[in-house]
Amino acid sequence: MLIPKLRSYKGVTPKIGENSYVDDSAILIGDITLSEDVSIWPLVAARGDVNTINIGARTNVQDGSILHVTRKSKNNPDGYPLIIGEDVTIGHLCMLHGCTLGNRILVGMGAIIMDGAIVQDDVFIGAGTLVPPNKILESGFLYVGNPMKKARPLKESESAFLKQSAINYTELKDDYLAELVNN
Q1: Residues near 37 by Cβ (< 8 Å), separated by ≥ 6?
Q2: Domain for residue 78, yes or no?
Q3: Nearest to residue 123, comparing CAs of 100, 96, 154, 85?
Q4: Does a structural domain hold residue 1?
Q5: What is the pLDDT of residues 6-33, one digit of tens each?
Q6: Is residue 36 part of a domain?
Q7: Which of 20, 86, 170, 179: disulfide with 56, CB 3.0–4.6 Å?
Q8: Mean pLDDT value across residues 26-43
Q9: CA 113: distance to chain centroid?
């Protein structure tokens, strides 16, 4: 049985922006909005069932990552949606749960970002880093560790790489889309 990669939940179906790519093995469910030029790679699971997921332009979510949200409740009337800005690179096997990410961020492989955490623009999160609930990661820094610690200001080359990584994945996504058209 073929499982559709875009699945409705309570009548709400994911919205896919222009020139975006969602791999056939990825599953997106419910209230999810992808902006233009987003790439969702193999085995990504995203569930916008009890809150919303919004992903900004030119963001890439790499293989095996999990995206989820926190439901609205009496104690937390808005719950925690998952909001991801533009030009964000989310490495392989990351878990993002009800957090907010700004623009030009790199989330290293295997990182976990928990409910209510806010990552400001221009941040580098090292592989395997755990960002606990409700933490704020300030713009312009490298964060590493479990739990995360502010390691140091970003080097100029690292800041430049944040945007370049998004460009690299946008170009790769375009190659994949071209293959689909040609086959």
Answers
A1: 17, 18, 19, 20, 57, 58, 170, 173
A2: yes
A3: 154
A4: no
A5: 999 999 999 999 999 999 999 999 999 9
A6: yes
A7: 86
A8: 98
A9: 10
Q: What is the pLDDT of residues 48-69, one digit of tens each?
A: 999 999 999 999 999 999 999 9
Say how many C-beta atoms besides its own lie within 10 A of residue 155's C-beta.
Answer: 11
Q: How many residues does the chain have?
A: 183
The parent domain of residue 59 ranges over: 6-182
Number of domains making up the chain:
1
What is the spatial distance between Cα 169 and Cα 156, in angstroms, rounded to a whole number?
21
CATH for 60: 2.160.10.10
Q: Tell me: cis bond preceding 147? Omega within 30 of 0 counts.
A: yes
**For residue range 99-154, what is the model confidence (pLDDT) as tens digits?**
999 999 999 999 999 999 999 999 999 999 999 999 999 999 999 999 999 999 99
Q: In the numeric block, which tokens belong to residue 36?
A: 């233009």
